[in-house]
Amino acid sequence: MKKNYIELKQRRDFGAIITVYFDFFKQNIKGFTNIFLRYNGLFILLLLGSSYLMVSGIMDSIAIEKSGGNDQSAMMMIGFGFIGFFLVLITTAALNYSLASSYMVNYNKQEHTDVKKKDVWNLIVNNIGSIILFIILVIVIYFVFGIAYLILSFIPLLGFFAQNIIQFFISSWIGISFMVMLNEKKGAVESLGEGWVLVKSAFWKCVGVNFIIGFLLGLLFLLLLTAPGILIGIYTFHAVETGDALETSAVATVIYTIGLTLVLIVMAYSQSLSQFINGVLYFSVHEEKYNVMMKKRIDQIGQGE
Fold this sequence. Notes:
Blueprint (H helix, E strand, L loop, with lengths): L13 H54 L4 H39 L6 H10 L1 H25 L5 H27 L3 H14 L1 H22 L1 H16 L8 H41 L1 H13 L1
Helix pairs in contact: 1-2, 1-9, 2-3, 2-5, 2-9, 4-5, 5-6, 5-7, 5-9, 6-9, 7-9, 8-9
């Protein structure tokens, strides 16, 4: 075990979990980012293509509407772009959820900071069937909770707090369940059941930690998008002031396409970083409930005597 290795299987209180998250973040950000870029290259190109279809379709639709023509072809372009965009987005989300979780499982298993790309990828491939089923179940879960979320939106104040609690509960439940699936090699349904048990045993800790890290990552997300956002804003303002027709401008289409793609890439990266906190929570809450490492150390002491 290397001296820089952070032991994840430990009981930790609220503050210690957040501290360990940032320690893990600083230690592994370079290695994980390399893995993220390596395996997201194809999906970045697909996002770029689907974003182009959507943006150019919207631009064409606006131009045709102004001229009073038939915008059926533009609507088809938007439709194909949206379908491709949605499918690539779901696949990218699943991939990056898997990359972050697999990275943490291998980090814990190998007990060193040099996590290999091949090991991360092999773990995902070996569990691809469970991952696909898990994603399908997550879509159903979000649909069900989305209805509850909508109902709560009609309740003043109390509904707002309930919505946020539900949001961060689901985030921790799904994230911890995914860790269960990869680390304990359980099926998708069984993992969701075990994840529910673990989150319920430390409900407020899981909700609170996800809230704080989610808020901080949200600020990071906005910070990363500040520069491209300002540049796109300046270009749009200049185009409007000079009377340029944005809907017929090839430059505008390219700029907005790249802008939308950058937003999605940063969102995917932020999602991966948010899964790290659920990984830290999983190992901590699991140890609190089952005392695996404590029993192991007691056995080692007994054998030493």
